[in-house]
Amino acid sequence: MDSMIDVLADNKSSKRKAPVKIAIEARALPRVQEVLAHVATDRTNPPLASQEERIAFKAEIEGALNENELIALRQGDESVLVDILGDHLSEQEQLLLALAYYDHADIEVGSDVRVGLIERLTDIEYGETHTHKDRGPIH
Predict the structure, then answer these.
(1) Which of 2, 32, 46, 122 is most buried when burial is the number of CB atoms within 10 A of its CB?
(2) Total structural domains in the chain?
(3) Are strands 13-17 and 3-7 parallel, antiparallel or unpaired?
């Protein structure tokens, strides 16, 4: 920790530790920000048009997370994305970003993982439904 010397009014000097400033810097992840902005307003059209954009998006996500977090994300744990931009993302934003990662970064995940995220996103957006959750056999 740095120290600084203060000269007092009577010309005596004393050492005092400087206050520690903690700041969370927003990460510069333009594709992630672009995807979040797009899916917030338009769920019909894909947020990334070209293959280069999809590669850049995948690289940003994978560069911001460690190996264990990537494994967790691929297993359906969207909470690893909470601080990806330096700000606290809402659960809805985490779910949307995870789904965009699966869909546009050529990531293979099980259908149960994708369906689980979609159901949680639906519950957040439309409120908890009080219908029977057992979907029965899938043909």
Answers:
(1) 32
(2) 1
(3) antiparallel
Please report whether residue 43 resides in a domain. Answer: yes
Q: Is residue 65 part of a domain?
A: yes
DSSP string, 117-136: HHHHHHHHHH----S-----
**What pTM does this model have?**
0.70
For 95, phi and psi rounded to 5 degrees?
-65, -45
Token pair recorded at residue 89: 């993302």
Tell whether 116 is covered by a domain: yes
- What angle, rounded to 10 degrees, do the helices at 91-104 and 30-41 form? 110
DSSP 6-64: EEPTTS-EEEEEPPP---PPPP--HHHHHHHHHHHH-SSS-S--SHHHHHHHHHHHHHH
Residue 13 lies in a domain: no
Torsion of CA 45, 49, 51, 53, to 10 degrees: -110
What's the rounded Cα separation, in Å, for the pair 85 and 82?
8
Q: How distant, in Å, are the alpha carbons of 25, 36, 59, 84, 109 from that of 116?
A: 32, 20, 25, 21, 11
Residue-range definition of the domain harbouring residue 75 = 30-126
